[in-house]
Design brief:
This protein is mainly alpha-helical. It contains 3 helices and no strands.
Length: about 90
């Protein structure tokens, strides 16, 4: 039996050298946290907190359609978080 080596991983699919989370994962966690917080606040404090959920939805649509949203710009520019893969 001969062992065959796995094919090399393309450069744009390799994990980050720093070991940090990619931008897409951070945005997903951020959106889920804000949506959950919005649901709790709307049940406990005021239904107006559901507007926060709408704001999260708009940002997710912007990121999916345009490739950037306000949160992704801040995370990349201020915190230096990089994308998981190139567009």
């Amino acid at each position: 039996m001969s062992a065959t080596a796995a094919p090399p991983v393309p450069k744009d699919r390799q994990p980050e050298a720093s070991g940090g989370w990619p931008l897409e994962r951070v945005l997903f966690v951020l959106a889920g946290s804000v949506t959950g917080l919005s649901a709790v606040l709307s049940a406990v404090v005021s239904p107006w907190f559901l507007l926060l959920t709408g704001f999260v939805a708009v940002n997710q649509l912007l990121f999916a359609s345009l490739g950037d949203c306000p949160a992704s710009l801040i995370l990349r520019k201020v915190f230096g978080i990089e994308r998981g893969c190139n567009r």
